[in-house]
């Protein structure tokens, strides 16, 4: 069994208005050394199977559902559990 | 001509859209459940606004896997006319029937306002009843209507004249002021403004009626004549 830890973020070319608001608010709170904030989604998916098969499967489900690759990028790690 | 108005769990503009195309514009039309697997007998498919599947994950991200979507893709691939409005536009981009994606409005506010637009391409099945460069006003009602496509895609969209409606005063950050655009073949259109909410003077205007009249004109002589 593997636990996939999946991170989905906007691509750098996409302006994220929520992250901008958070960054500006942190600055207003005096956290003036905060230079950038990225907001994304985090998923944990448990899958049965061997590592290679699960790796391919997670890549496909990110590409087809968990991320919209028109504006988002994804990365993940697999942990045997 | 016979139109299908799709209904997903969480759609909330389906009845308004049916009213606009059937009772006001005079086409034959009926609601079709997202659980249906066939669009046989229809000449036009309308994908309504709302919050399909609660907008879970992303707007339209779950709807793209609804049973009706396989038939919808086939319908579009065969050249059938498809119009997606608001959440319908989001669903069509998620399903890959239209380029790009809809992101949060730059203001992060849900905007519900009459919005001035320009019809920048009246050579489409969706806009042929509008004069060239016609200024119109349609209501918008969305939090995620900020149109995004990467630079190459955007250049291709412009080169192919796929943009049909542009905002006169960009309310949401959409690239190139895009309010509505077609696919490359020109038979699928997505738009964030709501033409179905502007088809009667009582509702504040009739500027949206042209979209439905254009589609009726484009499907004249279609196989499934109105009863």
UniProtKB/TrEMBL annotation, chain A:
Q: Which reaction does it catalyse?
A: N(2)-formyl-N(1)-(5-phospho-beta-D-ribosyl)glycinamide + L-glutamine + ATP + H2O = 2-formamido-N(1)-(5-O-phospho-beta-D-ribosyl)acetamidine + L-glutamate + ADP + phosphate + H(+)
Q: Could you give a single Gene Ontology term from the biological process aspect?
A: 'de novo' IMP biosynthetic process
Under SUPFAM superfamilies, the record lists:
PurS-like (SSF82697)
Q: What GO CC annotations are associated with the protein?
A: cytoplasm
Q: Where does it localize?
A: Cytoplasm
Pathway the protein acts in:
Purine metabolism; IMP biosynthesis via de novo pathway; 5-amino-1-(5-phospho-D-ribosyl)imidazole from N(2)-formyl-N(1)-(5-phospho-D-ribosyl)glycinamide: step 1/2
The answer on whether this UniProt entry bears the keyword Methyltransferase reads no
Pfam (any one): PurS
What keyword terms does UniProt attach to this protein?
ATP-binding, Cytoplasm, Ligase, Nucleotide-binding, Purine biosynthesis
EC number, as in UniProt: 6.3.5.3
**Top-level lineage group:** Bacteria
Per the UniProt entry, the signal peptide is: none
> Molecular function terms in GO for this entry?
ATP binding; phosphoribosylformylglycinamidine synthase activity
PANTHER family on file: PHOSPHORIBOSYLFORMYLGLYCINAMIDINE SYNTHASE SUBUNIT PURS
Oligomeric and partner information: Part of the FGAM synthase complex composed of 1 PurL, 1 PurQ and 2 PurS subunits.
What family is this? Belongs to the PurS family.
Role played: Part of the phosphoribosylformylglycinamidine synthase complex involved in the purines biosynthetic pathway. Catalyzes the ATP-dependent conversion of formylglycinamide ribonucleotide (FGAR) and glutamine to yield formylglycinamidine ribonucleotide (FGAM) and glutamate. The FGAM synthase complex is composed of three subunits. PurQ produces an ammonia molecule by converting glutamine to glutamate. PurL transfers the ammonia molecule to FGAR to form FGAM in an ATP-dependent manner.
Protein's name in the database = Phosphoribosylformylglycinamidine synthase subunit PurS
Say which species the protein is native to: Lacticaseibacillus manihotivorans DSM 13343 = JCM 12514
> What gene is this protein a product of?
purS
From TrEMBL, chain B:
HAMAP family named in the record:
PurQ
The record lists the catalysed reaction(s) as:
L-glutamine + H2O = L-glutamate + NH4(+); N(2)-formyl-N(1)-(5-phospho-beta-D-ribosyl)glycinamide + L-glutamine + ATP + H2O = 2-formamido-N(1)-(5-O-phospho-beta-D-ribosyl)acetamidine + L-glutamate + ADP + phosphate + H(+)
The name on file for this protein is: Phosphoribosylformylglycinamidine synthase subunit PurQ
Q: Does the keyword Transport apply?
A: no
- Any one of the GO CC terms: cytoplasm
Could you tell me the gene encoding this protein?
purQ
Question: Matching SMART domains, A to Z?
Answer: GATase_5 (SM01211)
- GO BP of this protein: 'de novo' IMP biosynthetic process
Q: Which InterPro entries match?
A: Class_I_gatase-like, PRibForGlyAmidine_synth_PurQ
Q: What is its main location?
A: cytoplasm
Q: Which CDD domains match?
A: GATase1_FGAR_AT
> Residues in the active site?
86, 194, 196
Q: What does this protein do?
A: Part of the phosphoribosylformylglycinamidine synthase complex involved in the purines biosynthetic pathway. Catalyzes the ATP-dependent conversion of formylglycinamide ribonucleotide (FGAR) and glutamine to yield formylglycinamidine ribonucleotide (FGAM) and glutamate. The FGAM synthase complex is composed of three subunits. PurQ produces an ammonia molecule by converting glutamine to glutamate. PurL transfers the ammonia molecule to FGAR to form FGAM in an ATP-dependent manner.
Enzyme nomenclature, EC number: 6.3.5.3, 3.5.1.2
Q: Where in the cell is it found?
A: Cytoplasm
What keywords were assigned to this record? Answer: ATP-binding, Cytoplasm, Glutamine amidotransferase, Hydrolase, Ligase, Nucleotide-binding, Purine biosynthesis
Its subunit composition reads: Part of the FGAM synthase complex composed of 1 PurL, 1 PurQ and 2 PurS subunits.
Q: What pathway, per the record?
A: Purine metabolism; IMP biosynthesis via de novo pathway; 5-amino-1-(5-phospho-D-ribosyl)imidazole from N(2)-formyl-N(1)-(5-phospho-D-ribosyl)glycinamide: step 1/2
Tree of life domain: Bacteria
According to the UniProt entry, its GO molecular function terms are:
ATP binding; glutaminase activity; phosphoribosylformylglycinamidine synthase activity
Natural source organism: Lacticaseibacillus manihotivorans DSM 13343 = JCM 12514
């Amino acid at each position: 069994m593997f636990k996939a830890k999946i991170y989905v973020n906007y691509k750098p070319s996409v302006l994220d208005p929520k992250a901008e608001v958070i960054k500006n608010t942190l600055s207003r709170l005096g956290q003036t050394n905060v230079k950038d904030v990225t907001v994304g989604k985090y998923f944990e998916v448990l899958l049965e199977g061997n590592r290679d098969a699960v790796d391919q499967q997670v890549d496909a489900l990110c590409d087809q559902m968990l991320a919209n690759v028109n504006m988002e990028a994804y990365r993940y790690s697999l942990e045997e559990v | 001509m016979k139109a299908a108005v799709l209904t997903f769990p969480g759609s909330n503009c389906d009845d308004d859209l049916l009213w606009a195309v059937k009772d006001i514009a005079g086409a034959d039309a009926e609601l079709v459940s997202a659980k249906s697997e066939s669009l046989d007998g229809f000449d036009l498919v309308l994908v309504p606004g709302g919050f399909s599947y609660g907008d879970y994950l992303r707007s339209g991200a779950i709807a793209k896997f609804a049973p009706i979507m396989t038939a919808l893709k086939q319908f579009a691939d065969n050249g059938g006319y498809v119009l997606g409005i608001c959440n319908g536009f989001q669903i069509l981009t998620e399903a890959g029937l239209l380029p790009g994606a809809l992101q949060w409005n730059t203001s992060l506010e849900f905007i519900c306002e009459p919005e001035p637009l320009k019809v920048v391409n009246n050579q489409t099945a969706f806009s042929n009843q509008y004069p060239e460069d016609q200024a119109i006003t349609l209501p918008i009602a969305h939090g995620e209507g900020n149109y995004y496509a990467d630079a190459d895609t955007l250049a291709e969209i412009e080169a192919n004249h796929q943009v049909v409606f542009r905002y006169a005063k960009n309310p949401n950050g959409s690239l190139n002021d895009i309010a509505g655009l077609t696919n490359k073949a020109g038979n699928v259109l997505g738009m964030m403004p709501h033409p179905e909410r502007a088809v009667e003077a009582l509702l504040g205007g009739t500027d949206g009626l042209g979209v439905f009249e254009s589609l009726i004109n484009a499907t004249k002589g279609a196989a499934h004549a109105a009863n």
